[in-house]
């Protein structure tokens, strides 16, 4: 079972056990990681599952779709490393993935 | 009056109950308790012959399952239970549009109501809320709907749509009629007036486009063809009608609750940082909006046989008050942190304004309780509500100790 590491804005780490096939967003919700809102439940409609993907990992992820890029326009504090975690699917190869959380989703 | 249907052949007699959402016993005093009482006396899934006949679901799990499944349960047959007989159901994108076209209409709204814009809207919301409260604070009383609740959502909506704030005075009476008038002809006329207003502005923004939302709506591409004029007008119309009353009635329900519960009120006054934490618990208990779906193929739901074309009423309030989903659902417990409330729906049609609604309601509570911590329902007067497709509030008289001679 892969582990996803969420690092909060204040540096506190949460290690979430994730299931292959679920979204990184769902792994965060299941592990009650604070800082992911996911208001729309993964429909690419709310931009509140926003996270920053560590550059070392970003190259191993599929590029964002046009729809994800559109929604990334409206996240708070957008950066080059911004992704919407509902669009990232957990695989064994992502064991240890580091996701930094923004100060706030809203 | 509702059209009473003949019971369809596939609906067993023991599942038929005479429940009219527009005429509930006790519904004009406290529609939540009125519905909770009906919920306790009816099966998980039952049929009512009103408004052409439709199913009502009492179980949170079933409501949640249906509302989020656009394949088995379509929105294109309309998302309300009360159409006048023979009513056409025109498309009001994205509300009653199914995949694959739904997302083309939905996306610009999601962006317009996304986190970045919400920050700006939050500032404007707080300004309006403070101005309104300061306007009646010294009076020691107000009628919450006409003095406050009606004014906030429309002001923010005009901001989102890039429309002149002064026009809200023109639109408010029509929106009020659409949402609260029981006369079908009056409602139709009011809808036409709002459509006419939307039509003028869609034409204006097409001719002189800017960076505002209406301009963006006129530029939507639906699959492989541009959005039609009527679709753009319908989108503006549904925002103007649908985006207003649901916030007002939710604010009213929560304020009524706090007016009647000193202990809950005092906890929030003592610790305002609790407000955002308990907001969803307040919303769970006071979900006044509902939707509907049409079954797309014969199927079984909750042990009951349904046929293609059957309509199902899906209410936030029955979800939030279901004793099989929540402990003591009629009580507001500030230690609850409910996940998966259905106040805003679920799935692709989940309310695009959910975070805006939360923002407006939270701002109301923060600014009101800081200025008017102690308030109650005016003695000798009564709250009036109007249940139907929603649990609307008509009249909420509040009083509080006025400051000594200013």
Give an overview in words.
Chain A is an alpha+beta fold and 106 residues long. Chain A is built from 3 helices and 5 strands; from the N terminus they run ββαβααββ. Chain A has a 5-stranded mixed beta sheet with strand order 2-1-5-3-4. In chain A, β1 and β2 form a beta hairpin. In chain A, 38% of the residues are buried. The mean pLDDT of chain A is 95. With 406 residues, chain B is α+β, with helices and mostly antiparallel strands. Chain B has 14 helices and 14 strands. Chain B is globular and about 70 Å long. At the A-B interface, α3 of A face α3, α4 and α14 of B.
Keywords for this entry:
heterodimer, A: 106 residues, alpha+beta, 5-stranded mixed β-sheet, 3 helices, B: 406 residues, 3-stranded antiparallel β-sheet, 14 helices, 46% helix
Order of helices and strands of chain A: EEHEHHEE
**Tertiary shape of chain B:** globular
The number of helical runs of chain A is 3
**Class by SSE composition of chain A:** alpha+beta
Largest interface summary: A-B, 19 and 19 residues
**First-residue to last-residue Cα separation of chain B:** 51 Å
Percent range of helical residues of chain A: 10-25%
Per DSSP E runs of 2 or more residues, the count of β-strands of chain A stands at 5
* Euclidean distance between termini CA atoms of chain A: 31 Å
CA gyration radius of chain A, whole angstroms: 12 Å
- Please give the largest β-sheet of chain B: 5 strands, mixed
In summary, what is this structure?
Chain A has 106 residues and is α+β, with helices and mostly antiparallel strands. Chain A is 17% helix and 20% strand.
